[in-house]
Amino acid sequence: MRIGARVLVLLYNLLLQWKHSAGECARPLGLTTGAVRDWQLSASSTLPQDLDPECHVRYARLHQPRGRAWCARTKTPDHWLLVDLGVAAEVTGVMTQGRADRDEWVTAFSLSYSQDAFRWDFTVDVDGQRKVYSGNSDAHSVRHNYVEPPITARFIRIHVLEWNRHPSLRLEVVGCQECNQLISNPPFTKITASSYYPWIRKNSCQPEDAHIFTHRAWCARHMNEHQWLQFDLGPPAQVVGVLTKGRPDTKRHQWVTSYTISYSNDSVVWYSYKEGNHLHPKVFGGNMDRSTERRHYLNQPFTARFVRIHPYTWHHAIALRAGLIGCPHHGECGQGFLRVTPLSRCVANLAYRKPTWVNDRRHGWKDWHYGNAALAVDGSSDTVLARCAILDNYYVDQPVWMVDLGWKEDVSGVILTTWQGAGQDKVMVYHDYLYNLDHLTVYVSNRPRLESYQLTLSPDGNVTRCAVISRANNALFRERLHFDCGTTLPGRFVYITASGVPNRWTQLYTAVFCEVEVY
């Protein structure tokens, strides 16, 4: 990543830290919006539905209509309401309401918290004693209490101490929770599978149809225990949960009823997800219909680049939509990844350390270190001439540079970091020849080692032009060039050709590639 991009990313991260320090950690954490599901709420007791249908633990959410709220079964000071936030959050406050349309509310409570629902601590006051919070004074107003100092917890309990008429409560937890975000959405995450059915009519069963928001699904071609759906998250990220749905685009009822999870950082060595001291992989409960989301939070989050879901049992057929919950990646992308724009998510650099070729044999020789073609994919964006690949027409009429991606990929664009001779090197002959350069063109093909005329006059349609950048408005002489293909182009080989300005006093020209990144 070039210096300018690094500065923008640094400023963005500092902005996030400033917002956090400036009191921006005060967002509702999901009871009001429904992000906290009903199964994440529990209580010591609840008034039976046959006695009062408006009393239920799932109604323990701020601004519930009519007389809905959580109501304890008895009028005793030993009741509690528990919220599972799914993943750890920084909690800075709680908001409470009484039971609307009733004269029932909690006037005093204490608060305990935990990371695992086994070991609990209470918040304390300045004297180190268990803190007692003042509750509501009527059934409608919202009472906000600060948690000072903030606490970090996954589980929150409200312990009822005093009340008016009956212990009844509506609640919202306030704070910030970065690691409760969906991190598996394409195009930033690549989804693959062990097998799948090809596209048929209006239905599709391909891996890219498996993300959680699609109206289609991935369907395995084989119905056995060896099938898997894989997410490539790019830079390793912390995974804290998984959610699944069935297949909605058919009248057939198809979904996965249970599954296991494995993860890896290199796609070679895989680890099965286990909990505690268990010897066998954890089997997660799947779906019971094709539309309802099933969500699991992990008791032991892990950090990985690759995550696989292995269907264990299924209903009629293996068909699945899925998503991963975790922490978005911040900071430098690391080797083998790039940001297309300074503030976008990191994606894989498909050209990283892949084999290269040029039609000028000098720069393709293994022992030719100065300007060698492989320097453009070594992962270093240093704009020092000795670290860059050189493309010129000294020995060839139309120079061509190529990278072999290893297999057919969907190419969306190319980021080219160039050398512009800005006082960093004393070899001015290259600097002079740069200004004889007229344009650079990027092509995508499934055929290797093509000459320039074969790229421009491909009769079999095996070559597709991605984009051209010319010297108009000095666009060609920027340090960072972005070739946007406009659409995804399938191909294994990416080419860059250079062309000079016609009718110059010298026909020699040079292009210097410090780093070529393909996404």
The named CATH superfamily of the largest domain: Galactose-binding domain-like
Number of helices: 3
CATH architecture assignment name of the largest domain: Sandwich
Return the CATH topology of the largest domain: Jelly Rolls
Number of strands: 27
Percent of residues in β-strands: 35-45%
Q: What structural class is derived from the secondary structure elements?
A: mainly beta
Average the pLDDT over all residues and give the rounded result: 90
Low-confidence stretches: 1-22
Summarize the structure.
The chain has 519 residues and is mainly beta. Helix content is 7%, strand content 42%.
Give an account of the 3D structure:
With 519 residues, this protein is mainly beta. It has 3 domains: 23-176, Galactose-binding domain-like (Jelly Rolls, Sandwich), CATH 2.60.120; 182-326, Jelly Rolls (Sandwich), CATH 2.60.120.260; 349-518, Jelly Rolls (Sandwich). It has 3 helices and 27 strands. It has helices spanning 3-24, 428-434, 452-456, and strands at residues 27-28, 41-43, 70-71, 80-97, 105-114, 121-122, 133-134, 143-164, 168-176, 181-182, 190-193, 218-219, 229-245, 255-264, 271-272, 284-285, 294-315, 319-326, 337-338, 347-348, 356-358, 389-392, 400-418, 437-445, 463-470, 480-500, 510-518. Strands 1, 2, 3, 4, 5, 6, 7, 8 and 9 form a 9-stranded antiparallel β-sheet that branches. Strands 10, 11, 12, 13, 14, 15, 16, 17 and 18 form a 9-stranded antiparallel β-sheet that branches. Strands 21, 22, 23, 24, 25, 26 and 27 form a 7-stranded antiparallel β-sheet that branches. Strand 19 and strand 20 form a beta hairpin.
